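Private note to self, pasted from the team thread so I don't lose it. Backbone tokens:
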């Protein structure tokens, strides 16, 4: 299933002010892999994630999603394959009601009203927010906004799910529900997060990024138990592992 593959080759990205956020990033994610991206603030996590479906295009280098090279011409097609959940839910929610927000993507794909309704109901039910369908998004709590922003992506039924800080602003139950949901999502996942315990629970592989470069790539158990590696990159052991070592 080549359409589930993410391939970065020597990707460089420079912002208009001259800041070089990515400095030659290369990695390949294959079908069904769940990959965490970790690093300190400003390391390049969000910039990397926003390149996966062309919200940002590389300054140089090559990004391929499946058999398609990411370009201005192909990014609309690629966005049908890759669903991105932004770090700030307010960047994703802009319609009068929750239902309208979740329906927006499927409607733009030209689906029938009946099919859109099915997609919306499924997505909202999956994240436990069906009762919020008629509410204005700006009346929701931070955790509810986060959940609804995830529903807007699930309604598109993407091949690849990319998420930026998905566990932020979630209460413990909502966080646990999200972990369960992601563990049931069998397609490719790429998740950027400061929440290393979350990465430990939902990802099998982990990339560490520092100053715009991938400095480590391995299994989650290899990376997130390596205290010296984490400290070198201004990170700490996941809290669950810290507690285990204190016993």
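Design output:
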């Amino acid at each position: 299933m080549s359409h589930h593959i993410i391939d970065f080759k020597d990707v460089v990205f420079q912002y208009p002010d001259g800041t070089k956020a990515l400095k030659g990033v290369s990695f390949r994610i294959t079908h069904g892999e769940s990959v965490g991206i970790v690093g300190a603030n400003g390391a390049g996590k969000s910039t990397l994630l926003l390149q996966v479906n062309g919200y940002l295009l590389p300054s140089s280098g090559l990004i391929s999603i499946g058999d398609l090279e990411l370009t201005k011409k192909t990014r609309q097609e690629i966005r049908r394959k890759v669903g991105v959940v932004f770090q700030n839910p307010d960047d994703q929610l802009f319609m009068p009601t929750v239902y309208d927000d979740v329906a927006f993507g499927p409607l733009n794909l030209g689906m029938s009203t009946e099919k859109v309704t099915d997609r919306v109901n499924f997505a909202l039910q999956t994240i436990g927010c069906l009762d919020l369908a008629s509410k204005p998004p700006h009346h929701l709590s931070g955790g509810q906004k986060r959940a609804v922003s995830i529903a807007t992506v699930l309604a598109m039924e993407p091949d690849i799910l990319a998420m930026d800080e998905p566990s932020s602003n979630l209460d413990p139950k909502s966080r646990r529900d999200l972990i369960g949901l992601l563990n049931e999502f069998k397609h490719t996942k790429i998740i950027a997060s400061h929440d290393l315990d979350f990465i430990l629970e939902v990802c099998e592989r982990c990339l560490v990024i520092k100053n715009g470069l991938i400095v480590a790539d391995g299994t989650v158990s290899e990376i997130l138990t390596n205290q010296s590696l984490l400290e070198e990159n201004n990170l700490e052991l996941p809290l669950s592992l810290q507690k285990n070592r204190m016993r």
